[in-house]
Amino acid sequence: MTTPNYGSKRVVVGAHYGLRDWLAQRVTAVLMALFTVALIVQILFGAEMGYAKWSAIFSSQWMKLLTFVTIVALLYHVWVGMRDVLMDYVKAVGVKLALQVAVIVWLVGCGGWAVQVLWRL
């Protein structure tokens, strides 16, 4: 005896990123906010703003590392957001893939440029 078929099985499609991406967006946002607060504190407590002060803020290795970590967090934050927008609103698979590749190339380029700026490579 076979069981009756009451309709087609539900097929769940998509990447199933859900909670992981939601959490990544929140964690990277908090990290960027903390970096912003640390930077504002350094700007407010000190000498008059100018090139010398700005250069001094980013001359220490810990600040370069913190800035780089924040830039990586920003790049990942952007990737998750852009990927979700493209997955939700671009229906043509070829266009979606081309746009995702373009976003990845752009973000990798921005990351490389950030390394050059921070460490003067």
UniProtKB/TrEMBL annotation:
The record ties this protein, via InterPro entries, to:
SQR/QFR_C/D, Succ_DH_anchor, SuccDH_FuR_B_TM-su
Role according to the record: Membrane-anchoring subunit of succinate dehydrogenase (SDH).
Q: In which pathway does it act?
A: Carbohydrate metabolism; tricarboxylic acid cycle
Q: How does it sit in the membrane?
A: Multi-pass membrane protein
Q: Which GO terms describe its cellular component?
A: plasma membrane
Highest taxon, organism lineage: Bacteria
SUPFAM superfamilies for the chain: Fumarate reductase respiratory complex transmembrane subunits
**What species does this protein belong to?**
Piscinibacter gummiphilus
What does the record's cofactor remark say about binding? The heme is bound between the two transmembrane subunits.
Query: What cofactors are annotated for this protein?
Result: heme
- Name recorded for this polypeptide: Succinate dehydrogenase hydrophobic membrane anchor subunit
